[in-house]
Design goal:
mainly alpha; single chain; 83% helix; 424 residues
Length: 424
């Protein structure tokens, strides 16, 4: 009960600071071209960092929990070195090849905004290493049910971004957002490193785990999460071709939906997954299947209602939350139009995430991985067709591919599960 309250409080604090982060961005940048450059640079890195955090907590924590103290300490030390090397290389590659990354992530940006996005991406590059290292320490804290520091990740990131924007805006311009973001990830790293120091000092055994085993489960979950995130990245890439302000408007819409996804998926998955694992272990596959079906039905109802309310109330809510400063009435109209086309993705996204987590918990990752390829493939196909026909200039069509892709991914996974009866 205490752990649940701590996690819930951290999620609430992260979402509150996340709202202020979006509000500050809206006030200072609105949907101007500088906001497009920021969205193209910070959006994919922010998504990658969230994938890293979820991977470490969802896939690496169980690996640690299965081992006794001495073996756990040995596995942690070995894995920490491996992850550090990998993500240090990723951060370096991000900084060195920033122009090439932006050419891929923001092909429709004008030259000044593209140059700005390159600079922003280089300021963001260290955050990937900081996030990976802090997530590794946080995984160790989770094994002792110390949830407060790991739960502060979003608060640190959001707080750092807000502080950087407000304190450095006059001298560094839009760069202040990304400097603050990286600083926030650095603060989270220091916190997790400091509060895990006693656990890292525990005596280690001589256990040596093959590197492939260390990487397999986290790698598979990261691949799944990366493919799901890729569906959103593809949408943002095409949004840069649709005109000024569209990429920024899409980013505002994504952040609104991600909050709803968090509150829909995490509470249900937290209660559903352990029960399904228990039934599977007791060879009660039929009951486990019925429980998944019940969870999917309840999630579908909640997701459809949330989507309907979002569509109906989008204009007054967006105006109430963000329409001030650089975020004008025209910005409200633009974000509302993009949100209308993107909102249906909430349904397929929530359902796919829920059912995939159930199967990862059952150590059956193949079907979720297969299903995760479908949304991005469908999105690429639909959006490419729309662009070739000249119909991607409308804000309403930007999120169409993502919405249909998520629904197709969920439908395919749900069908495969029942057709092949993989739970048993």
């Amino acid at each position: 009960m205490q752990g649940g309250l701590v996690v819930g409080a951290c999620i609430l604090l992260g979402n509150v600071t996340g709202f202020f982060r979006v509000a500050v961005t809206a006030y200072l940048l609105g949907t101007h071209t500088r906001a497009d450059a920021l969205a193209v640079a910070i959006g994919p890195l922010d998504t990658l960092n969230s994938v890293i955090v979820n991977t470490m907590l969802f896939a690496f924590v169980p690996m640690l929990m299965l081992r006794q103290a001495g073996n756990r300490a040995a596995l942690f030390a070995q894995a920490a070195r491996v992850f550090t090397y990998i993500f240090a290389a990723a951060s370096l590659a991000t900084a060195l090849f920033a122009p090439q990354w932006i050419a891929i992530l923001g092909p429709g940006l004008a030259a000044p905004e593209r140059a700005q996005a390159v600079t922003l991406l280089r300021w963001l590059a260290p955050s990937t290493l900081f996030t990976a290292a802090s997530a590794t320490f946080s995984a160790l804290l989770y094994t002792e049910r110390r949830f407060a520091v790991p739960g502060m990740y979003q608060t640190c990131i959001n707080g750092g971004t807000i502080a950087g924007a407000l304190l450095l805006g006059k001298t560094m311009g839009v760069n202040g957002f990304t400097i603050g973001y990286s600083a926030g990830s650095g603060i989270q790293l220091l916190l997790s490193w400091y509060f895990s120091r006693d656990l890292r000092r525990e005596p280690r055994t001589a256990l040596r785990v093959p590197v492939a085993e260390v990487l397999l489960k986290p790698g598979m979950f990261m691949l799944y999460a990366g493919l799901i995130a890729g569906n959103l990245v593809v949408t943002r890439i095409f949004a840069t071709h649709a005109g000024p302000g569209i990429a920024a408007a899409l980013d505002y819409s994504m952040r609104c939906l991600s909050v709803v996804i968090a509150y829909l998926v995490y509470p249900v998955a937290t209660t559903l997954v352990p029960e399904i694992a228990h039934l599977h272990g007791a060879n009660e596959s039929a009951k486990a299947r019925r429980l998944i079906d019940s969870g999917v039905f309840l999630m579908a109802v909640a997701a459809v209602l949330s989507c309907a309310l979002g569509v109906l109330l989008r204009k007054p809510v967006i105006a109430m939350l963000f329409e001030r400063g650089s975020f004008t009435a025209e910005s409200t109209a633009l974000v509302s139009a993009v949100f209308l086309g993107f909102a249906p993705s909430l349904i397929g996204w929530a359902l796919l995430e829920l059912i995939a987590r159930c199967f990862f918990a059952l150590n059956r990752p193949k079907l979720p991985l297969i299903a995760a390829f479908i949304p991005i493939a469908v999105n690429l196909t639909i959006t490419s067709i729309l662009r070739s026909e000249g119909r991607l200039t409308s804000p309403l069509t930007i999120g169409l591919g993502a919405s249909i892709g998520f629904l197709a991914g969920f439908a395919a996974l749900f069908t495969m599960i029942h057709a092949r009866k993989q739970i048993g």
